[in-house]
Amino acid sequence: MTRHEKRNLRVGLIFISPWLAGFILMSLYPLISSAYYSLTDYSVLSKPVYTGLDNYRALMSDELFWQSLWNTFYFAALSIPINLVAAILLAVLLNVDLPGKKIFRTVYFLPSLVPMVCLGVLWQWMLNGQMGLINQMLSPLCDVINAVLGTSVNPPNWLADPAYAKLGLVLASMWGVGNAVVIFLAGLQDVPRSLYEAAEIDGCGFWRKTIHVTLPIISPVIYFNGIMGLIGSFQVFAVPYVMTNGGEGPGRSLLFAATYVFNKGFQAWSMGYACAVALILFVIILVLTLLATYVAERHIYYAGK
Amino acid sequence: MSSKTAQLLQRFCLYVLLLVGAVVFILPFAWMLSTSLKPLNETMTVPPRWLPSHIQWDNYPRAIEEMKMFWRYTGNTVYLCAMTVIGTVLSSALAAYGFSRIEWRGRDKVFVLVLATMMIPFPVVMVPLYTLFRELGWIGSFKPLWVPSFMAGAFNVFLLRQFFLTLPKELSEAAKIDGASEWQIFCQVVLPLAKPALIVVALFQFMATWNDFLGPLIYLTDQSDFTLALGLQAYQSREGGTDWHYLMAASTLVVIPVVVLFFFTQRYFVEGIATTGGKG
Lengths: 305, 280
Known about the structure:
Chain A is mostly helical. Chain A has a domain at 75-236 and 277-299: Orthogonal Bundle (MetI-like fold). Helices cover 71% and strands 1% of the residues of chain A. The radius of gyration of chain A is 24 Å and the shape is flat. Chain A starts with a helix and ends in a 6-residue tail after the last helix. In chain B, helix 3 crosses helix 7, helix 3 (70-100) crosses helix 12 and helix 8 (169-177) crosses helix 9 (182-193). The radius of gyration of chain B is 24 Å and the shape is globular. Chain B starts with a helix and ends with a helix. Chains A and B meet through helix 1, helix 3, helix 4, helix 5 and helix 6 of A and helix 1, helix 3, helix 4, helix 5 and helix 10 of B.
């Protein structure tokens, strides 16, 4: 290394030192000690006692753990694709030059600013079985259906019904789709006009242009938003926690992996056990992200690459 | 039908679609506001009353009272927002500068680590962090909630680095020829130019602190130290969901500052979010 290189390395490291400190103290150390704690019996009041794989063995036969994983997968499998499709659709619509475009964009974005706790309280009220707005609007619809078809369907009791609770949570999460819409809108600005014009000459309408021109070009953005959705929905915590008043929902239908980590670690103070659950969650997120990346690399279109 | 009318019809349909969607997105806000101004009995009518028979402003002072220490919570939240915004802007700007404006061996490999840390979910590190802060005697104080912000979060470093990379190299070189040190270039050349990006980072951090729930939930023990988010949740779970008019008034009070902030800084918000999805 020349003197100049040495100097640059020294100055560079000084500048990144806040990050370096954070990396060691807030990421590396907790990650390693989390792995260690997961092999111990550890309540915060006493020193951790090494117990090998006992926590993991106990997890295998822990019904609550499996329930929380199932709920997490269920919610993720529902909310990620729904939110992606909704965000793309909205972005495509909001990209059309229509009067009032700016106001529309603001309206669709605004809900994504609502703090999680407010979102939880508000949607607990929206989804209330008797007085909630959703059911007040669904029940006339059900009346019509019943009158025409002679059936007797009723609006669901959302958060009080294990079969519908997660669907209710998905509805609430869809309300905050605006963030992803803004990212997609930015991606849409990168689509060259010439491609649309070429497609128009070939006789493509709005939808065919969207599917054959827009989607391939914004595929890197779809990948990005997909990964963000994945990371976010696998650690969903605040909204269901608030919606259930700090509980687990009817029939434990809103007990998610992150909720279980919190309950085990900070309610039951079985911190070793909580770390084991958290690590499994981490591995799942990691594997799914790598998998998505692997698939994406085969299908993503990168301009100029 | 000529293609011109077809196109017009298509645009009209799009417009209607957008309009219906917009109403759907506004409805929860409208419902929250309307509930927050109703007398209790009117929150429970079937079919719903869209508007209260008379506007009951009194719900707001009552909600503040019901939340117990509303003004304390507000003060705590503002304090934490201020500390974390200062910490994040300072530390992320420094780190981002080191990752973009100085060439040093291994820099881009280390930057991959920055991106990788964004993947670590908070639940995974929360137990060891709690233990660490407990050793330091910080549980039940604000420190676990603001001290880490002085250690440059990955997301903000990423965002600022993107911006710093767009500034021409010649700027630094010219300053260097004039005898400026790296520190002087950082303070006097790069930071002034990066103001819009710094505002974006400050805004995002403000929002993150204002919204944070899990952090305060595990680190704060004393009710008088609660943040607004935690205080609202505590009120809601204590109250158990009957006084919806007060709960909606309280929620509105927590949402309003964020919405107001957004309207004053809309441009930065939208640009900032757009860059997050950009060249990632």
